[in-house]
Every structure is written in C-alpha cells, then in structure tokens.
Amino acid sequence: MADETVTWRDRAFPDAGVPLAEVGAQGWHLLNGDFHLPVAALRETAIERNLALMRDYCRRHDVLIAPHAKTTMSPALVERQLSDGAWGVTVANVQQARVFIAAGVRRILIANPVVGRADLTALAAWRRTDPELQVLLLVDSVETVAVLADRARAAHDDLGPQRVMIELGYAGGRGGVRSTGEAVRVAQAVHDVGSLELVGIEGFEGLVSGADVAERRRRAAEFLEWSASVLHDLLDRGLLPAHGSLASFGGSSYFDLVVAEFRERWSGGRIEVMLRSGCYVTHDHGLYARTSPFVGHEPAPLPALEVWAEVLSCPEPGRAVLGAGRRDVSTDADLPLPFAVRRDGRTQPVEGLQVTGVNDQHTMVSVPDHVSLAVGDLVGLGVSHPCTTFDKWRLIPIVTDTYEVTDAVRTYF
C-alpha cells in the first residue's frame, strides 16, 4: 500500500519522517511526551486475544468468517484476520472493496446491492485483470436484479455470471426482502437472467430494536429463524445450489444466534455459514462489552482501542475539560468512557469519572470528590462502537500494555 512514511499529516505522531515499517524501532512511548495529544492507540495484547477467540470459535463451530472491514478500513489489521483463517472480507461498497483489492484481498462480499455504472465497470476491470478475484453482491428486489443484470451484462459479458446473494430484512430495518414470497420472486428473477448466479442468502440482525439486550436477542433469533425457513424454501425449489449454498449473517453482538440457527440445525455440507463480525478484532468498552457473545467467557475479549487526552482546564469544582472531542472519539453509541488517569509517569485505573458532554474538540467530565484530577493529567477514554473512532485517524500506533509503541497501522476511509 501507499503512504509508507510517517509525515506531518499523521496527526499525533512525531514529525519524524520515518518509514512506517520502522515505527517500532524509534523507542517512542505513547504517554511520555513523544506524541501530540489527543492520540488513539491499539493494544497489541488485546488484538491478539480477540483474534484468537474468533478464530477458535469459528473452527469449533465449522463456520466461515468474512469480517466487515469497514470497522477498521486497515489492510494491516485485515491481513491479520486473513492469516487467522478468515474466508475474505466484507465491505459496504465498491470504494471500500477497491482498498482491499489493492491490498491483495481476493475474496470480497459487498454487503449491499451494487447498481452504479462506474462501480460495475470497475468491478469488471478488476475481475478481468485478476481472474482469481471473487466478489459477491446482494439483490433484494426484482427491480434490483433487472438493473444489475443489464449493467453487469454490459460491463462484463465475457467474464461469466456475477455471483449474488438475496438480502433478507425485517420491518423497519435496512434493505432486504420482507417476505418469503418476495424472496422466491427475486430468486426466480436471478434464475431467469444469464448474467447473474444465485449462491445464497444474506442478512444483518444487529440492528433489531428492543427495550433491552434480552428483547433484542429474542427478535434477532426470530429474524434468523424466518431466514432459515426462506433458505429451506429456496433449496427445495431448486433456486439455490443443493450443496454449498451460503448463509451469511452475524454482526458482533448476536453471532452465536446465527451459529445456533444455521450450523446446529444444518449439517452434511448442504450449506456454508459465513459470519461477518467486524468489531470483534478490537471489542470495546461499551456497546460490545454489553452485547458480545464472548462476554462472560474465559478468556474474555479485551478492549483494544482507546483515546488519550490531556486535562486542559478545571474551571469549577467537580468539572474538568479534556482536549479531545467528537473529532477524535466515538459518540454514536455511548459517550467516551474514562478508564484511567496518568500523572507523573504513572497510569492508574480510575472509577467515577463520567463524561457529561462532548463538543468537536472538547470533552466535559464530571469529577467526584474521591478522584483527584488536575490540569496536565492524561485521561484514557474507552470507546463504544469502534467503527466511528477508527475513521478519525489515518495512522494509529500499536502499543504494549505499558504504552511502548511497537508498530502502527494505516486506515483508508
């Protein structure tokens, strides 16, 4: 990949002009004055543990995983996922696919319909350049099939049929067919055109609504149960391959329900189950700390991604202002979660600090009487939903548990 030198554009990093491959040899420490603040960081021990947890889980349950790379948009982290046995990667659009094709990934699921002329022309050009490249697309209506078939035929009628999956959805959700009858009509439409090939079904259960985790898990299980019935119907009608059809579901919260529905009830190689969890690689301090199926297991997943900021002001008793904001850390699922304070070269865990508000560049913190916080102290902020922290940083250092910098990974948002 390009951008192999650390430059002034890589915020927080020393302006050293060193090759990216030599970051770990600089002797830098994240929190001892080498880096500008705020700074995001990834803990190596947590990444290693989380990768191993998902690798072993998939092997134990005989399922594939194509992690959703939009979480990190980091070829370096995706390469580690592939080295641990991932089938390929999931992306949201052709622009994201472009990043990972350039990085050498050869199996990609685009978890959306693709109908744009420029997108399909680009996919055809990449397939023509590399016959080993496999790209799966989604369809969720007869109209989508017609548009995709027409444009796919025009773009790559010499490359063989484009492989597609039917996207299933639920009321109030995103894309996806809403009934078995609609799924059958879409499958028949794919069957009737020569430029597409139906290979499976796909859906995303991670955004089901509910008052609490228990209710959301119940509704996710209901959606997956219906999805399995659709798969059974399409197989019985001969609209899917009799063996090896794909069933792809599974965000980072309910993938155990996917395994229970599709792997524990289907055997004999008739289907392949493909999870798409992306956030497992870093876990988090909030959303997935509450919902990941790995929570409560031993070993438990560890939050790998964190952001550190300085205390800029203590303008009144019980209130501190940090030099980080929504330009630096996720706020879409929960506000940042303070977990540690560093003073005079010592890092201590802390309880009781609470973020009460976040501006573009500032975070307001409520400070209880039992916590000492002063101007110049550093505060470690845990994140909830790592996707929207990753997209704020071009280059993220990897650190040991004592914050020595050993490497860095680029993102390509």
From TrEMBL:
<dbReference type="GO" id="GO:0008784">
    <property type="term" value="F:alanine racemase activity"/>
</dbReference>
<dbReference type="Pfam" id="PF14031">
    <property type="entry name" value="D-ser_dehydrat"/>
</dbReference>
<comment type="similarity">
    <text>Belongs to the DSD1 family.</text>
</comment>
<dbReference type="InterPro" id="IPR042208">
    <property type="entry name" value="D-ser_dehydrat-like_sf"/>
</dbReference>
<keyword id="KW-0456">Lyase</keyword>
<feature type="domain" description="D-serine dehydratase-like">
    <location>
        <begin position="304"/>
        <end position="400"/>
    </location>
</feature>
<dbReference type="InterPro" id="IPR001608">
    <property type="entry name" value="Ala_racemase_N"/>
</dbReference>
<dbReference type="InterPro" id="IPR051466">
    <property type="entry name" value="D-amino_acid_metab_enzyme"/>
</dbReference>
<dbReference type="Pfam" id="PF01168">
    <property type="entry name" value="Ala_racemase_N"/>
</dbReference>
<keyword id="KW-0413">Isomerase</keyword>
<dbReference type="InterPro" id="IPR029066">
    <property type="entry name" value="PLP-binding_barrel"/>
</dbReference>
<dbReference type="InterPro" id="IPR026956">
    <property type="entry name" value="D-ser_dehydrat-like_dom"/>
</dbReference>
<protein>
    <submittedName>
        <fullName>Alanine racemase</fullName>
        <ecNumber>5.1.1.1</ecNumber>
    </submittedName>
</protein>
